[in-house]
Amino acid sequence: MPAHPNLIQLTATPFIHAYLVMEADGLTLIDGQLPHNAPYTLKAMARTGLPLRRVLLTHAHLDHVGCLDAILTAHPQAELIVSERAAPFLRGDYALFPNEHPQTLDSTGFRKLQHAPAYTLKDGERVGSLQMIATPGHSPDHVAWLDTRDGMLIAGDTFQAIGGLSVIGVMNWLNPFPTWATWNRPLTLDSAIRLRNLQPTGLAVGHGGILANPLGAMDRAIAHAQRVLGHQA
Ligand SMILES: [Zn+2]
Predict the structure, then answer these.
(1) Ligand 1 centre and the CA of 31: distance in Å?
(2) Tell me, what's the pLDDT at 230?
(3) Residue 233 pLDDT
């Protein structure tokens, strides 16, 4: 029995991951890899024998929403549920909010969706077993999802786990793309600390493998980021 039996990592494109979470009423899909990954994702969902109920995002970048229009078209009963902050990005509105850090936002990494959200969530709200944790930094709309049943954290692009765990605001030359695409590097450290303080039992990221018992690795990644970026929190 795997340590986190409710979670399936989707790996159609190496080092770009989406996740299936098994709930009592069916599947929740978190993120959508790239546009051409739709057939793989549909097959992975079919293999579970469970209906797709919900589609969630960590953030509205291309490599996280790429195939979601195709998935939602194939599963019209599934609800797209996103953070309040992601909703304008999914419509192509990239204006920053007055309360956000004024760091200029490069919108080229974002991708619009044809499908509109069924509803939006505020920080801390839950959908099924998953609690939404606002973690801005990689992008203004970035969130993580904590499985309240077992403490598994689906953390998106606040950390990456390629060549060891690192905070995404710190350059990792084994996979520099997520850091290049990061809106505000110091804010990713604040969000990494917020996630560490949830004391997750497992860590699943957008780029890299799943870590069991990740607290030591998170502490080391945060300490390194504090040296590189300066302490923010
Ligand atoms: Zn990413």
Answers:
(1) 10
(2) 81
(3) 47
